[in-house]
Amino acid sequence: MAMKGTGIISGNGDQQRTLVVVFLRGGADGLTLVPPVGNSEYYRVRPTLGVPEGDILKLGDANCGLNPAFSALYDIYKDGCLTVVPAVGSNDDTRSHFYAQDLMEHGGPVAGGWLGRFLRYRDGVPPSALSAIALGKAMPEVLRGAPAATVMESMDTFSLGSQSGPTDRLKEELGMLYGKDESILGPAARDTLQALERVEKLRREDLPPMNGAEYGDNSFSNGLRQAARLIRARVGLEAVSLDLEGWDSHFAQETLITPLMTRLSDGLAAFHRDLGKLMKKVTVVVMTEFGRRVAENSSFGTDHGRGGTMLVMGGTERGNVFGEMPELETGILVGPGDVPVKTDYREVLKPILTQHGAGGSMAEIFPVG
What we know:
Layout: E1 18-25, H1 30-33, H2 40-45, E2 57-58, E3 65-66, H3 71-78, E4 82-89, H4 97-106, H5 114-121, E5 132-135, E6 150-152, H6 167-178, H7 185-205, H8 219-232, E7 239-245, H9 253-275, E8 282-288, E9 308-314, E10 320-321, E11 343-344, H10 345-355, H11 362-365
Helix pairs in contact: 3-9, 6-7, 8-9
């Protein structure tokens, strides 16, 4: 018995919203991504790495701006679809990449990931095989505990065995096996087989990006392109996790992260253009485990710090700055010379999750803090 597609896999139709979480692993330097404006101390302690004030892309009257490598994102900000959050982070002062990433992805010192708990407790229809996707090689901590989540590097890897193998017969036999099974395995198996058919159809069609969008030839941009294809196909995709690694900039920071900033900006801009009006129901959150120290080191890099940067694109964003860049004088710095955390990252996420259907479940999603 072949499994026939019936449109939206999860059954939630046009009410579907999608949250895309981009994690910048390695501790991205917030003072380079979003440099301060009008702060002489910044240039005193960063004689090499300080972004020239004349090059900073100003954000209205805010005392911070965007790095010039974010020119594509600046256009989105001016269109009212990007929010910038300076001096953001967790309430833990660890400077260990792995511990800080775990804490932020878990939503605090609790089991499972905050995005997984959101999918478990949010309002709406039951999850499907394509409710949550991690674009990569492994399940990220943020999706741990999700009722259903799929890991794939691309749609080409979401299949039953080899693409050239005899999968049609196998799918038919599995369809017959689970077609009338009313146990817990039956619906899950039927849902998975239907998801396979939808993805195979998308793979065969291989439609180009919409609205003249052009993605770069790199794994990050390719992941965003895959996500956009699934969102446009209305397969019930609610959450996407995607990493952009390489931000640990102890040495030669400018050479290391300028290409990453361009890749991030151009990839998100292509995604935004590709989805067009659909971005009203799609929110992209860009976050990192912590920022870097205010002063540059002797290797023209920066060491692990506290306050970092978040970006929020799409959804109901209105092109603003959430919070404020603190002054960088020595008296207000924390630890060995770090930007203080002025905004807890969960306070940025809570209204976004509410918009995406969290309802009254915020205490379950973020049970502490």
